[in-house]
Structure formats: structure tokens, C-alpha cells
Amino acid sequence: MKILVKLFATFRDNRFVKQEMEFPDDTTVKEVLAVLAIPDEEVAILMVNGRNEEVDHPLKDGDTLSLFPPVGGG
Length: 74
What we know:
The chain is mostly beta strands. The protein has one domain: Ubiquitin-like (UB roll), CATH 3.10.20.30. The protein has one helix and five strands. It has a five-stranded mixed sheet, with no helix packed on it. It comes from Heliorestis acidaminivorans. This is MoaD/ThiS family protein.
């Protein structure tokens, strides 16, 4: 299956902004994070097709996964 992965803020460092990636059917968000070398605890917000989800959420062909780190500032 193909999913579109969008990375935000510091997750883009040495990676990409958005990229279509292929994974086996029923891959979870956690498995995508492992491929990207992003520890679960570093993800503040993860969205699948614009909806908040958890790391154990199974992905489907055509999904869009958006990953956000904690953002600080003032």
C-alpha cells in the first residue's frame, strides 16, 4: 500500500517535507515511525487523514500520515 507521509518542524531535519512511501497492508503508525527513526515519545501530534490517532492505528492504502514534534516558543 502507498501512504503519503508529511513531516513538520524538526522532523524535517535530514529527512523530507512530504513523501509517498510503500508499506505492507495493515502497517501501523508505529512501524512507520520505526522506518523513519522517530521515537514514539518524540511525536506530540499524529494525524491520519486529518484526524488525531494513536501509534497503534493501522494504515490503509491512500492514507495521509502527518507527524508533529513538540513545538516550543514564545
